[in-house]
Design goal:
Blueprint: H1 2-18, H2 25-31, H3 38-50, H4 52-55, H5 59-67, H6 69-87, H7 91-98
Helix pairs in contact: 2-3, 3-6, 5-6
InterPro entries: At1g01640-like (IPR044784)
Protein name: (rape) hypothetical protein
Organism: Brassica napus (Rape)
Amino acid sequence: MKKFQNNLQELCKAHLISITTLSNVLDILEMSTIPSDNRLKSWATFFIVTHMEEIVYTSKYKLFVHQNPDLGLDITQLFVDALRSEFGYTDQQLRSAVLPKP
């Protein structure tokens, strides 16, 4: 029975990954925490970070972060890590990029 349950979980996880879209990725990320599923969580956060511009300016994302602050922090940290590794940005360069212009 345990093997069947594990196979079913893997099948469901693979299905969720295959149907991920901009409109359902936040729901999938939230589902990855109950019970904790690192593979699904990693996939969903990766998907969000690679589609940041389309997701973070939505009211759904604002509500999501309000209801899931730890997941919002995970997304932010992954995004900053991606900027650092992909573009070699330092903290000073990141600050300069967001500093309000006079």
